[in-house]
């Protein structure tokens, strides 16, 4: 018996035992751990499960080939997979990853709010946006951004905000959380910069119409607007709020993102003309570098863009496709694409920078999970019924997914 102290198995060095165990799959490792306490301890070592975790969905680990490239811009925003992953054993992360793959989760509506009244007998839905870090969830509601503490010992978040960031005269359209700063664009055409821990804030007039999207990195802000321009702004001492470049996009700008290398930025536009809705511009000069894709249908605007690495980019929008671009190989054609099964526009997309993609659809609050190694949708969750609402924004950690709809914030807890 392997559990016997005199078994030849225990005469082997631990390094050799670990090497033997490294050839086992998940099921075999689990069965090995049921033999005896000693083998349970051995089969639970992080070293064995880390290899398996790299092939799992949203486990917090990257495959080695992408690890270096993916961490180039790691300081840009909190890594989706890094949130709440600290202290979780690798074996437990693999278990939670199986819940993601099979759609096993607990659903909860953690916040609700009323529609914003704009005139008698009519109403306008708020279009909330959100960001996550290790301790807080930041949610835009009307003119404010509210910081809700995440519960440290359980799922969900506290129901009352610990801080409120204000400054806009109209609704916040989008905002980003970078390096202890919040940068937001509003329907009043202004940009507001807040320091998370302190009273410092800056506001300046940016566009003639609403600022639909913003990004911030390396002391520079890029913004896109309905006024058909994208602008680059300085935040250096003595030049705060100074416009460095104005890019004439000839189309409404719905989404924008700075490359992790800080050399360029990408714009996603409405595609109402004959130009590509996805274009990359030089950050220093404001000149057009390249257009991504060809033969886009009129109106197939890009609503969200996301850099995984300096050369890998995700996009989604009105034409119901998620597209995966590798700028090193081709700018004319994406390397992969996934079609929304119910022909709905896609409002938002995020990835774990490894195998998993999460997307939000325009009808009935549908969140979908995708495995890049497969062509079909892996799992779908309908969060809005019977009233239809888009998923305006979603963010996730290794254990939880948050989705902002027209009048509620939903939580999917995959630890359950």
Structural descriptors:
single chain, 416 residues, mainly beta, Monooxygenase, Methylamine Dehydrogenase, Chain H, 4-stranded antiparallel sheet, 6 helices, 39% strand, WD40_rpt, FBXW4 protein, SCF_F-box/WD-repeat
Please give the radius of gyration in angstroms. Answer: 23 Å
Biggest sheet overview: 4 strands, antiparallel
Q: Which runs of at least 5 residues are low in confidence (pLDDT < 50)?
A: 65-78, 117-124
Number of helices: 6
CATH superfamily of the largest domain, please? YVTN repeat-like/Quinoprotein amine dehydrogenase
Main structural class: mainly beta
* Strand portion: 35-45%
| Form type | globular
Report how far apart the termini are.
36 Å
Kindly report the average pLDDT value. 87
Oligomer state equals single chain
Helical percentage: 10-25%
Please write the CATH class name of the largest domain: Mainly Beta
Structure notes:
Helix content is 12%, strand content 39%. It is mainly β. It has 2 domains: 8-60 and 74-99, Monooxygenase (Up-down Bundle); 105-413, Methylamine Dehydrogenase, Chain H. Mean pLDDT is 87; it is low at 65-78 and 117-124.
Structure summary:
The chain has 416 residues and is mainly beta. It starts with 13 loop residues before the first helix and ends with a strand.
Give the helix/strand layout.
Blueprint: H1 14-21, H2 26-32, H3 37-43, H4 46-53, H5 64-70, H6 90-102, E1 106-112, E2 116-119, E3 122-124, E4 130-132, E5 136-141, E6 144-149, E7 163-165, E8 172-178, E9 181-186, E10 190-195, E11 201-205, E12 211-217, E13 220-225, E14 229-234, E15 242-248, E16 253-258, E17 264-269, E18 278-282, E19 288-291, E20 302-307, E21 312-317, E22 321-326, E23 336-339, E24 346-351, E25 356-361, E26 366-371, E27 379-382, E28 393-396, E29 400-404, E30 408-413
Antiparallel strand pairs: 1-30, 2-3, 4-5, 5-6, 6-7, 8-9, 9-10, 10-11, 12-13, 13-14, 14-15, 16-17, 17-18, 18-19, 20-21, 21-22, 22-23, 24-25, 25-26, 26-27, 28-29, 29-30
Helix pairs in contact: 4-6
């Amino acid at each position: 018996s392997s559990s016997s102290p005199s078994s030849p198995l225990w005469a082997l060095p631990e390094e050799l035992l670990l090497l033997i165990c490294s050839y086992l799959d998940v099921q075999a490792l689990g069965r090995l751990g049921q033999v005896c306490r000693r083998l349970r301890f051995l089969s639970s070592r992080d070293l064995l499960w880390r290899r398996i975790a790299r092939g799992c969905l949203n486990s917090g680990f990257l495959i080695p080939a992408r690890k270096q490239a993916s961490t180039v811009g790691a300081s840009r925003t909190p890594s989706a997979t890094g949130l709440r992953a600290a202290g979780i054993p690798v074996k437990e992360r693999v278990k939670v990853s199986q819940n993601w793959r099979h759609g096993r989760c607990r659903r909860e509506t953690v916040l609700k709010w009323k529609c914003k009244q704009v005139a008698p007998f009519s109403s306008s839905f708020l279009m909330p946006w959100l960001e996550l870090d290790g301790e807080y969830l930041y949610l835009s509601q009307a003119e404010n951004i509210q910081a809700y503490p995440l519960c440290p010992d359980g799922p969900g978040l506290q129901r009352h905000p610990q801080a409120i960031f204000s400054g806009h005269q109209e609704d916040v359209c989008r905002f980003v959380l970078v390096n202890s700063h919040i940068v937001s664009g509003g329907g009043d055409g202004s940009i507001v910069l807040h320091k998370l821990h302190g009273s410092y804030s800056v506001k300046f007039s940016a566009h003639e119409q609403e600022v639909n999207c913003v990004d911030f990195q390396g002391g520079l802000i890029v913004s896109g607007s309905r006024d058909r321009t994208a602008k680059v702004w300085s935040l250096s001492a003595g030049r705060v709020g100074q416009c460095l470049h104005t890019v004439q996009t000839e189309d409404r700008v719905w989404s924008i993102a700075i490359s992790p290398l800080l050399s360029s930025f990408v714009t996603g536009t409405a595609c109402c003309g004959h130009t590509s809705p996805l274009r990359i511009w030089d950050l220093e000069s404001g000149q057009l570098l390249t257009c991504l894709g060809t033969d886009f249908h009129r109106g197939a605007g890009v609503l969200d863009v996301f850099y995984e690495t300096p050369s890998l980019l995700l996009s989604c929008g009105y034409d119901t496709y998620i597209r995966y671009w590798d700028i090193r190989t081709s700018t004319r054609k994406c390397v992969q694409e996934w079609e929304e099964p119910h022909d709905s526009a896609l409002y938002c997309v995020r990835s774990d920078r490894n195998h998993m993609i999460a997307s939000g659809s325009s009808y009935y609050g549908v969140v979908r999970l995708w495995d890049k190694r497969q062509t079909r949708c892996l799992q779908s969750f309908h969060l809005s019924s019977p009233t239809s609402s888009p998923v305006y924004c979603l963010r996730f950690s290794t254990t939880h997914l948050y989705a902002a709809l027209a009048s509620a914030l939903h939580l999917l807890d995959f630890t359950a």
